[in-house]
Specification:
193 residues, alpha/beta
C-alpha cells in the first residue's frame, strides 16, 4: 500500500505544515455555488475535508446539517479548535469508502485528486450510494495531469467516463473563478444522482 493511502501519511503532512492545497478559506468556485443555495436544511457531506473551510462557511451561513469526514485526525483537530460550537457527531474521522449515511449534497474539494486513481470508479459509486435520488455531487476537479501524485489530475473526458454510470446528469465546466494558484486548472462539476 502506498504511503498516501494511510492516515499516518496525511497526519504527518498536517503536522509538518506540508498542506499546499489548503487555501485558508473556502475555495472561490465552491463559495459561488454555496451562495446560490437556499435550502439551509440540506444534508451536506464534505469528504476529505481537510481543514474544512467550506464547512465552517456553510455552518456560519445557517446550514446546520453539515458533516465533515477526513481520513486523518489532525485536520479535524484543527477544525475543532477553530469551531468549538460545531457538533462533534457531525465530525467523522474515517475512510470515505466505509462511511455510511444519506445526503442531499456532497461537496468535492480535495479527496478525488488525493486517492489512488485506481479507486476513482469506487469513489463515483460510493458518492452515488451516499446521495439520495436527486442528490448532487458538486465541487472542483483538476483539469490537468501531474507527473506524480498526490495530487492526481485528469481530464473532463476521463471524469465523465468515471461518473456517468452512477449519475443521470454530469455537467463539468472550466472554472473562471479559481484561486490564483489553480487558475485555468480546475473544472467545476455538478452531478445529479
Amino acid at each position: 500500500m502506498a504511503d498516501f493511502l494511510s492516515s499516518e501519511f496525511w497526519n504527518n503532512r498536517y503536522h509538518e505544515g506540508q498542506i499546499g492545497w489548503d487555501l485558508g478559506a473556502i475555495s472561490p468556485p465552491i463559495h459561488a455555488y454555496v451562495e446560490q443555495l437556499t435550502d439551509i436544511n440540506l444534508r451536506i457531506l464534505i469528504p476529505g475535508c481537510g481543514n474544512a473551510w467550506e464547512a465552517e462557511y456553510l455552518f456560519r451561513k445557517g446550514f446546520k446539517n453539515v458533516h465533515i469526514l477526513d481520513f486523518a485526525e489532525a485536520p479535524l483537530d484543527n477544525f475543532k479548535a477553530r469551531n468549538s460550537y460545531f457538533p462533534i457527531d457531525q465530525m467523522h474521522c474515517g475512510d470515505f469508502f466505509e462511511h455510511e449515511g444519506k445526503y442531499d449534497l456532497i461537496i468535492e474539494q480535495t479527496l478525488y485528486c488525493a486517492i489512488d486513481p485506481l479507486l476513482r470508479n469506487d469513489y463515483a459509486r460510493k458518492s452515488a450510494e451516499l446521495l439520495d435520488t436527486g442528490g448532487k455531487l458538486v465541487g472542483v476537479l483538476f483539469n490537468r495531469t501531474f507527473d506524480s501524485g498526490p495530487p492526481f489530475g485528469g481530464s473532463k473526458e476521463e471524469y465523465l467516463e468515471c461518473f456517468a454510470p452512477y449519475f443521470k446528469s454530469c455537467s463539468m465546466e472550466i472554472c473562471d473563478n479559481s484561486a490564483a494558484p489553480r487558475s485555468g486548472n480546475e473544472l467545476f462539476i455538478r452531478l445529479i444522482k
